[in-house]
Amino acid sequence: MYYFFQMFKSYILYKPLCLKFGFKSIIYKPIKITEKTLEIGEKVYIYKNCRIEGLTKYMNVKFDPLIIINDKVSIQQNLHLTCAKQIEIGKNTAIANNVTITDIIHPYEDIGIAPEFQMIEFDEVKIGANCKVYNNVVILPGVKLGKHNIVAANSVVKKGKYADYSVIAGAPARIVKRFCITDNIWKKTKPNGDFHEE
């Protein structure tokens, strides 16, 4: 009964704020959502204290952000997500607590202006299907995670394309293990991404 109550409450409260709100999705309060920048698929779970913010205007410049959370994504508490262009989270992906995902950077090069007041730069972020993002991860602009990527706790993932079926770890993060289709096993990788010789 509690589940159905939460589902109904989420639909009433958050469907008007979203571009799309899928069947059986649940959002727990408190949460900050920017109106009309978010598409939520079916059976999505978003827990307390998340900030999901589409940046529609900054320093008098207008933006048209789009945040897509596909079917059966689960997001634990304290997600900090900010978007000026596009962020997409693939189906069946699980995001642990205290994760930051952003497609925005504040430049710092002009030392006469505080970084907060310099014009932002942005590059879209895509997280593939069936991924697992562990606690305290930071995902930065321009990241393209493949299918079934596992991002280790406390990693900082910088701009780049990460192959399907990879384990990513570190600050800055790199691929430390990949699934070898030929041998049908997970193998450790060298810094260049090649498999270690057995």
The termini sit apart by 54 Å
Give the oligomeric state of the chains in this entry, treating copies of one chain as homo and distinct chains as hetero. single chain
Count the strands? Answer: 26
Molecular shape: flat
| Topology order in helix (H) and strand (E) letters | HEEEEEEEEEEEEEEEEEEEEEEEEEE
Sequence of strands across the biggest β-sheet: 2-5-10-13-18-21-24-25-26
Radius of gyration: 18 Å
Please indicate the percent range of residues in DSSP E strands (runs of 2 or more): 35-45%
Low-confidence stretches: none
**Please, what is the average pLDDT?**
95
- Secondary structure category: mainly beta
Q: Specify the number of helices.
A: 1
Helix content: under 10%
Question: What profile does the largest beta sheet have?
Answer: 9 strands, mixed
Please write out the topology:
Blueprint lengths: L1 H13 L5 E2 L4 E2 L3 E3 L4 E3 L4 E2 L3 E5 L2 E2 L2 E2 L3 E4 L4 E2 L4 E4 L2 E4 L4 E2 L4 E3 L1 E2 L15 E2 L2 E3 L4 E2 L4 E2 L3 E3 L4 E2 L4 E2 L2 E3 L3 E5 L2 E8 L4 E4 L10
Parallel strand pairs: 1-4, 2-5, 3-6, 4-9, 5-10, 6-11, 9-12, 10-13, 11-14, 12-17, 13-18, 14-19, 17-20, 18-21, 19-22, 20-23, 21-24
Antiparallel strand pairs: 7-8, 15-16, 24-25, 25-26
Q: Explain this structure to me?
A:
7% of the residues lie in helices and 39% in strands. With 198 residues, the chain is mainly beta. The protein has a nine-stranded mixed beta sheet. A seven-stranded parallel beta sheet has the order 1-4-9-12-17-20-23, with no helix packed on it. The chain is flat.
